[in-house]
Amino acid sequence: MEWRRIMLFCIAFWDNHRRVYTAFGSNSTKRSRMAKSYLILDAYMDRLHIFPAGSPWEYAGPHGQDQWPDIFPDCGGSSQSPVNIQTVNVSLDQSLTPIHPVGYSTPGTGPLTLRNNGHTVALALPPSMRLQGLPKNFTAVELHLHWGSSSPPRWGSEHQIDGEMFSAEVHIVHYNSDKYGNVSQAMTKPDGLAVLGILVETATADNPAYEHILSYLWNVRRAGQFVTIPAFDVHQLLPKHLDQYYRYRGSLTTPPCYQSVLWTIFHQRVQLSVSQLERLQNTLYSSKPGPSPGLLQDNYRAVQPLNQRTIYTSTSVLLRSPSTFSTGQILAIVFGTLLGLVSLSCGIHFAAKKLRKVRMRAAEKPNDVVLQSESVQSFSSSFDVVLQSSAIQAEQVEKPTLP
Ligand SMILES: [Zn+2]
After folding, report:
1. 172 SS3 class
2. Does residue 332 sit in the same domain as residue 217?
3. pLDDT digit string (tens) for 39-62?
């Protein structure tokens, strides 16, 4: 039945081409051809189960982050993402208006596709979703997440604020639809993409909005699997304050790391419960069905050098003068002060104890004291006598003898 396998092979190959070209158009610039070839190869291997999905790169191991620039030169560029946002160095840009998502609450009537691509779980978004409040109109493409692991516990946000990581991070990718026909054309251009970054922290209560994604993870456990899910209000996944954010120019945080992203990192975090986060960390596999599957965890890139770039903020609320301190610095000062006070108390305690011992020792030897006081009295008496006799002698010298 070899002819049957060959036919299936051809059908799968054609279908992958069709899927990728449908999604990314037929642009023929050099970089988009490279990206397209990579995506076709990835989808091809994915469908035929030749290699684990995403095998050309990984977050750790022989194809890990340090090796990305060897295969994807842009990953070694000078404007890479993510970065550590040091709030003391952020500049205010009053032209940064609030982000205004359009069509997020009603993303079409059809179902949405959720897919495990071996690196993350990605939700394909319809072109009716777009962003206003940026220099251009940007159309939504996909939403995906980055996270850490529960054992050992590791936080998995990509961006950091003053060196602080968060539990996870959500990215919503858009392309510049004013200027480019599709994401394939846009992703290689400096003004091509806009990504919203949402930092996730843990809380006690479940976040019902994220259940629209998390409750379907079980259906896409293995790399390459996808499921269609009912459309839902994507706006509910965003934080409430869309006017407070950090803005800088950077890159895709995964290969091919094109430096084409206008980043918006919201200041306000969203919350997931610990159990929701653990479901994200412990449900998906980075590999296809087969022996020894590897959990899809720690899919975050390390922070990259900021180099000459400036990070801007939309509001003076997020500005921090050099004289103010971050949470970490405040904790360090508080603990340092407490330690100082404890040391001082110990010093005083031991000094007082020593003084008490000296006094007690002195009290245990009363004769010495008496003797000493007697000696002093005797010395004083002798001194008085000497003085008196001297005075008498002087008197005798001064008063002439009467005739
Ligand atoms: Zn991402």
Report:
1. strand
2. no
3. 444 443 343 333 334 458 999 988
Phi, psi of 45 (to 5 degrees): -65, -35
Nearest to 41 by CA among 13, 8, 9, 71: 13
Give the whole-angstrom CA distance, residue 400 versus residue 392.
Answer: 13
Total structural domains within the chain: 2
Of residues 52, 22, 207, 199, the one with CA closest to residue 116 = 52
CA of residue 180 to ligand 1 center, whole Å: 21
Q: Ligand 1 center to residue 329 CA distance, Å?
A: 29
Nearest to 39 by CA among 137, 119, 130: 119
CA of 80 to the centre of ligand 1 (A): 13
Is there a catalytic annotation at residue 119? yes
- CATH number reported for the structural domain that contains residue 274 in this entry: 3.10.200.10
CA of 364 to the centre of ligand 1 (A): 78
What domain range includes position 350? Answer: 325-362
- Choose between 323 and 99: higher pLDDT: 99
Q: Do residues 200 and 157 make contact, with C-beta atoms less than 8 angstroms apart? A: yes
Domain contains 332: yes
Catalytic residue among 119, 146, 212, 267: 119
Angle made by CA atoms 145, 150, 151, in degrees to the nearest 5: 140
Tens-digit pLDDT profile for residues 155-199: 999 999 999 999 999 999 999 999 999 999 999 999 999 999 999
Check: CB of residue 272 under 8 Å from CB of residue 122.
no
Model pTM?
0.70
Residue 7: per-residue pLDDT? 40
Mean predicted lDDT score pLDDT of the chain = 80
Find where tokens 């940064």 sit: 96
pLDDT tens, position by position, 101-116: 999 998 877 899 999 9
Rounded to an integer, what distance in angstroms lies between the CA atom of residue 217 and that of residue 52?
Answer: 19
**How many whole angstroms separate alpha carbon 43 and alpha carbon 54?**
9
Query: 128 C-alpha to center of ligand 1: Å?
Result: 21
Query: What HEC string does 56-80 produce?
Result: CCCCCCCCCHHHHHHHCHHHHCCCC
